[in-house]
């Protein structure tokens, strides 16, 4: 297997891992004002992701660094052309991060409610615009002979991309509901279970439309298989949640996100950023790649350090594996 293929797969895996792990983070943030009916309940919801949310963001940082080193032309065209969309995601992540840290610094309800609103807003922004970005990467954008983006921000807010954003927002929110059902106990857990059932149904419609559109316009045989598995995983999550098997339901939404992201990258391959103005100007895994020497050095570095990072993050999840209850929250 060529190094360009290996690193395309590596970046796809990193983004997929990020969407699985940060996806339920976003979902918890979106559901904060919906499921949390008191300060203690909202505090309990935040505590389910408190020890892990910032570690989950390491995946996207690593993905961006890998893209920069392995496919510098892809990185340059994407970050220069999509800067407003990526800036919206960054704003959302900053708002969330600050809110998590500052929420507990005040003692008044108004103070906490203001930061809760920031968590909700930041989660919605990031969850929605990640879908818009990925959809535009698969669809392609106008590029010139220098691989520079020649369109406007309004061209990035096309119907396909907006449907992608709605799909990721709803899917991550559903993912968060199943996570809360698994990680909490009592009334919050039961409300999350009931809401998760309704969210799964609501997610199915735009998700099916987006995936069918993707397959019809840009898909391949592999992407079709992954998209079918994505749909089956979402159905399985609904049935498992309905039967009260929260752990398996959450595992199914993890699989749903994984198959959806993998299907999009499969539809993209062998391109990394197609050109809609002139196909000859599109970026592929070959013409966007760094030198073989660079890719070789990166491969050895990844082989050494990636297992360490995975072991550390796995240990973190194991340490904080217990359910969070309202009773643990001081009055």
Plain-language structure description:
There is one protein chain. By secondary structure, this protein is mainly alpha-helical. It has a single domain (3-328), classed as Formate dehydrogenase/DMSO reductase domain (Formate dehydrogenase/DMSO reductase fold, Up-down Bundle), CATH 1.20.1630. Helix content is 77%, strand content 2%. It has helices at residues 3-35, 39-49, 53-56, 58-70, 72-81, 83-102, 109-139, 153-156, 159-183, 187-218, 221-242, 246-268, 292-319, and strands spanning 271-273, 283-284. A two-stranded antiparallel ribbon has the order 1-2. 46% of the residues are buried. The model has no long low-confidence stretch (mean pLDDT 90).
Structure characteristics:
331 residues, Formate dehydrogenase/DMSO reductase fold
Outline of the structure:
The protein has 331 residues and is mainly alpha-helical. It is built from 13 helices and two strands, in the order ααααααααααααββα.
Looking at the structure, the CATH topology is Formate dehydrogenase/DMSO reductase fold
**CATH architecture title:** Up-down Bundle
The radius of gyration over CA amounts to 20 Å
- Choose one word for the global shape: globular
Please, what is the average pLDDT? Answer: 90
From the helix content, strand content and strand pairing, which structural class follows? mainly alpha
Percent helix among the residues?
A: over 70%
Strand proportion, as a percent range, falls in under 5%
Order of helices and strands: HHHHHHHHHHHHEEH
Number of helices, where a helix is a run of at least 4 consecutive DSSP H or I residues: 13
* Strand count: 2
Query: Which residues sit in consecutive blocks of at least 5 with pLDDT less than 50?
Result: none
């Amino acid at each position: 297997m060529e190094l360009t293929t290996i690193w395309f797969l590596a970046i796809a895996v990193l983004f997929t891992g990020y969407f699985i792990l940060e996806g339920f983070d976003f979902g918890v943030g979106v559901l904060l004002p919906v499921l949390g009916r008191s300060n203690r309940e909202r505090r309990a919801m935040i505590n389910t992701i408190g020890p892990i949310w910032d570690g989950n963001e390491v995946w996207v940082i690593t993905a961006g660094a890998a893209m920069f080193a392995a496919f510098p032309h892809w990185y340059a065209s994407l970050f220069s052309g999509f800067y407003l969309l990526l800036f919206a995601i960054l704003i959302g992540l900053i708002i969330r991060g600050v809110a998590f840290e500052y929420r507990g610094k005040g003692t008044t309800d108004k103070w906490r409610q203001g930061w809760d609103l920031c968590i909700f807003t930041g989660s919605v922004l990031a969850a929605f615009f990640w879908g818009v970005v990925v959809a535009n990467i698969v669809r392609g954008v106008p590029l010139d002979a220098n691989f520079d983006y020649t369109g406007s921000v309004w061209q990035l807010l096309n119907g396909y991309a907006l449907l992608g954003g709605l799909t990721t927002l709803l899917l991550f929110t559903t993912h968060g509901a199943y996570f809360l059902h698994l990680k909490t106990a009592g009334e919050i857990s039961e409300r999350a279970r009931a809401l998760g059932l309704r969210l799964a149904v609501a997610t199915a419609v735009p998700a099916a439309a987006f995936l069918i559109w993707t397959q019809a316009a840009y898909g391949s045989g592999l992407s079709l298989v992954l998209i079918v598995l994505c749909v089956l995983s979402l159905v399985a999550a609904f049935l498992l949640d309905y039967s009260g098997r929260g752990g398996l339901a959450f595992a199914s939404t993890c699989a749903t996100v994984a198959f959806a992201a993998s299907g999009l990258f499969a539809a993209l391959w062998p391109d990394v950023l197609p050109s809609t103005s002139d196909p000859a100007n599109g970026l592929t895994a070959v013409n966007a790649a760094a030198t073989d020497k660079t890719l070789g050095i990166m491969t050895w570095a990844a082989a050494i350090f990636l297992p360490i990072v995975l072991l550390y993050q796995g240990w973190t999840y194991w340490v904080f594996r217990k359910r969070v209850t309202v009773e643990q929250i001081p009055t």
